[in-house]
Amino acid sequence: MQSLPKLDKSPLWQRYTWIIDPIKFFETVTRQHPDLCEVKTVGFGNEYILVNHPEAIKEILSSNRQKLFASSKNNGMLSPLLGDRSVILLEDNPHRQRRKLLLPPFHGERMATYSQSIVALTKEVFGSLSANQTFSARDLAQDISLQVILQVVYGISKSDKLNSMASLRAQELKRLISEMADVFRSPLTSALLFFPKLQQDWGAWSPWGYFLRVRKAINKLIYAEIADRREQDNIHGEDILSMLISARDEAGQPMSDGELRDELMSLMFAGHETTATAIAWALYWVHHLPEVKTRLLEEIASLGASPEPMAIAKLPYLDAVCKETLRIYPVAMLTFARVVQHPMQLLGYDLEPGQVLMGNIFSVHQREDIYSDAKQFKPERFLEREFTGGEFVPFGGGARRCIGEALANFELKLVLATVVSRYQLTLASDRPEKPQRRGVTLSPAGGVKMQFQGVL
Question: What does the pLDDT look like over 360-369, one tens digit per residue?
Answer without folding.
Answer: 999 999 999 9
